[in-house]
Each structure stands twice: as structure tokens, then as C-alpha cells.
Amino acid sequence: MNARPADSLTPTRDAAAALASSRQRTLALTDCLDDAELLAQHSPLMSPLVWDLAHVGNQEEIWLVREAGRLPALRPDLDRLYDAFRHPRADRNALPLLPPDGARRYLRQVRERALEVLDAAAFDGDGPSPASHGHHPLLAGGFVFGMVAQHEQQHAETMLATHQLRSGPAVLAAPAPPAAPADATALAREVLVPGGPFTMGTDTDPWALDNERPAHTVDLAPFWLDTVPVRNADYQEFVTDGGYADPRWWTPQGWAHRQRAGLAAPLFWHRDGGVWLRRRFGRTEPVPPLEPVLHVCWYEADAYARWAGRRLPTEAEWEKAARHDPATGRSRRHPWGDADPTPEHANLGQRHLQPAPVGSYPAGAAPCGARQLIGDVWEWTASDFLPYPGFTAFPYQEYSDVFFGPAYKVLRGGAFGVAPVACRGTFRNWDHPIRRQIFSGFRTARDAAPGEAL
Fold this sequence. Notes:
It contains nine helices and 14 strands. By secondary structure, the chain is of the alpha+beta class. It folds into two domains: 6-165, dinb family like domain (Four Helix Bundle (Hemerythrin (Met), subunit A), Up-down Bundle); 176-454, Alpha-Beta Complex (paralog of FGE (formylglycine-generating enzyme)). A hairpin with a 4-residue loop joins β8 (324-325) and β9. The radius of gyration is 22 Å and the shape is globular.
């Protein structure tokens, strides 16, 4: 059983709020820049921001307005132009993109139609399913509204990463996270996650995406997991100890990439005398020692874990630590329970533009005692991105199916740049193991010895 409580979900209200929140974030990340900055290619890793601006509208038109709402097409001529699989990010600045004002106008037109669909929608079921009562399967549980809102919020996170990569002056601001609670320094280094079966994935979360389904039982051996993500101070020890210069800690592929890319520290770090500094959204500041390390690739995370005599947790281990409640035997929606996240639970939604100190958010702790499993930084796992047994692509193969395989590693837990609607205990992110511009960190694990597991 892993359902969200029935009284916490009112689909029409939740859908309207999710759509409004996603649009507010999109506009906040684009209205702060002039047209030249929106049209610029700030990095070959990222699209021009104006491409993202119109792309989220195009996806909303295709899936919500046309497919689910069965309304006439507004701009079918834009479908090929804003097809993410047709045009690599590095090439999108050469396309005949809508100008910023045109993209904003298109967004408004699509949203007007989308709200018409919402007003007429009838919700039933727990998510994607065959049509019932004459309704489109995309409308089951309000899935299409959740899918569209999550898609736009995922692009908001991508646009935030573009802001981090741009070289211009700072245009974003947010308050710092609260200080860590008094008990943060007294936390045990690791927590024991007991062995045995648990339910991984979901069948009942109405807005869960296809790769989170179906729910299935996974049986794991007991293991120890870091109570909190690896800190900047911990990672500096790895750097100071020559971790980047010692091939013992790296996989062969990782060592080759480290040499080829010249990796010597996390992305955006540099030394000034004896002080490590970082660049964060246009500002330079000392690296905070107690924050989770950020902007490391999978190879770096794996090398650190080996250096520390540990390993990265598997995806299943991460999810069991985050969701399994030994007292009831059920899997929760979030580490703290089934309720939606609040500011007391996790650092989400670009409320703070940096991770919180490790040990923060005790109200968001998992039953095993681990903290910050949701929010702050995406956490690399040891696992390749693969389908669950019985996986079915919905509503299109390009969301998940084409990415399955050893080329991508799974990240879990979300980050400070992730909206709550796109973050839950079952949510799966994935990327190439060389990626560092994403808001990625990690925590480590180790096998439990027989005596420790008692």
C-alpha cells in the first residue's frame, strides 16, 4: 500500500495550482533577463532560454490541449521546431525560434485553452489507465495536468542550471536556508536500514510518471547509509588527499574522463590562495563547509566513495531508506509520510538557491533516521536507469523508454531547484555519468556485517 490519503487530493484544485505555480516559475526565470540574454546560448550543454520558454507551451498544447482536450491545434507548425529529440541543445540557437514576446504570447494562448480543458475535465482513477466512462486515459486521476506541470517545472530546473552557467551579473536572489538544528552536529554518521522486502515504485500515485510504475517487491540485504549527504568539507579532504590524481579510486571510464576533462574539483570551485571559492548564480563566495557537495558527476561521487572505503547506494537501497516504514511494513510517499512537503520538511522549489546545511529538516527524516533524502541535492546512485518489471510506456516512449540502459545513471531525491510537484520518494531522475552542471551530490553506503544487522 502506498496511496496518498484520499482527503489530500482534490484534482481540479491541485491541477490548477500546479499549472499556475509552474508558469510563475517559468516567467520568474525569464522575465529577469533582456531579450539578448534569452536568445543567447550560454553553454553548449543548455538550450537558449527562449527555446525552453516556447517548448513548455508546445508540450502543453500537444498533450493537454490537443490530445487530452481534443481541441483544435493552435500552432502545429511549432511541433518540429520545439521537438527536443529532433534538435540537440547545442544547435537550438541556430533555429528560427519565436522571439521572447512571441513565446510569451504563445504561452498565454495555450494556457487559456488548457484551462478550458480543466474546467470541462472529469477525474477518475489513480493515474494512467485505459479510458473509462468515455474519458481520455490521460485524464485519469488528472494525470495529464500533473504531467504538464511536472514537465514545465523540470524545465524550470533546467533553466536554473542555465542561470548558473551564464557569465553575466547576478539576476536571481533568494534568502539563505535556515541554520541547521542544534542536534545536527551530534547525528550519527550512518543509519542502519534493515534487510527484507519492501514495495518499490507505485501504482496509486495519480501523478507518478511511467518509469515510477508499477509497484513491485524488492528484497534487500541490510546496509548502512550516510545519515546526511556528503559535505563540502568531507569532499575537500578527498581533494586535498590527492583523490583526483590517484587512479585507484576511479573506474577506468571515470579515470579516462577525469584526465580528458581535466577534473580537479567540483564544477564552479576554484582556489584563491588557501581558500576554496565557488561561483553561485553570478556571485563568488567561500565554499560553505557544512553544505552538501554540489555539481559533481557520477564518476567523482563514485571515486570519493571508494576513497572513503564505501560505495554509492543502489537505487533500490536509496528508495527503501527513503520510503520503507518498518513499523507498518508499508512504503510512504515521502520519507516523513504521505503529506505533501512543506518548508519544514525539505528544501525544494527554488525557495533557497543553495542547499541547506547537512542535518537540516529533522521533520523530513525517514523512519531509518536519514535526513535530507528529499530536496537540497540530487543524489547519485550506483544504478543504471532501467525499467521496472512490467513497465509500460505512457503516454509516449520518448519520456523514459529511449533512455533505458547503461548510458545513464539514476539520481534520486530532488534538489533545491526542484518543485514539490516533481519530487517524491518514487521519482526517478537520470543523466550521463559525466554531467556536473546539474544540482547533483550524493551520500555513501556500505554493506552491513552479520552482527551489525541484528
